[in-house]
Specification:
Elements: H1 2-7, H2 19-24, H3 30-37, H4 49-65, H5 75-86, H6 89-101
GO molecular function, one term: small GTPase binding
Domain Rab-GAP TBC: 1-118
Protein name: Rab-GAP TBC domain-containing protein
Length: 118
């Protein structure tokens, strides 16, 4: 996990410090995020109800942080993998922000309207 954090330069990133607020703020994507929780790694015994709630908070925080992009199906697997690897909710959010928002990674392009990078 430390390699992932170093690779995305998490320590040098401008990650929102109001994670708790972002994670609990209702937004236009909250309902879709809730629907997708049951579809995320259902075969993983370690990804039960508690992990699903943590993932929901991460995705809700990201959608609130970046309302221009919001949430798109598929983001749940990226964020879910980060959570499985780290078991750290707020750091997973930070790495997700780096992967999605930093131009050198540009993962957000896979989730924008009309999916331009696919």
């Amino acid at each position: 996990w430390n390699v992932w954090k170093a690779a995305v330069r998490l320590e040098d990133s401008d990650i929102p410090s109001n994670y708790e607020t972002l994670a609990t703020t209702e937004n236009p994507w909250t309902q879709q995020i809730e629907i997708d929780m049951g579809r995320t790694f259902p075969e993983q015994k370690t990804f039960g109800a508690e992990q699903q709630q943590r993932l929901k908070r991460i995705l809700n925080a990201y959608a609130s942080h970046n309302p221009g992009l919001g949430y798109c199906q598929g983001m749940n697997y990226v964020a879910g993998l980060l959570l499985l690897v780290s078991d750290h909710e707020e750091e997973s959010f930070g790495v997700l922000c780096c992967l999605m928002d930093k131009p050198q990674f540009g993962l957000a392009g896979f989730y924008r309207e009309r999916l331009p990078l696919l």
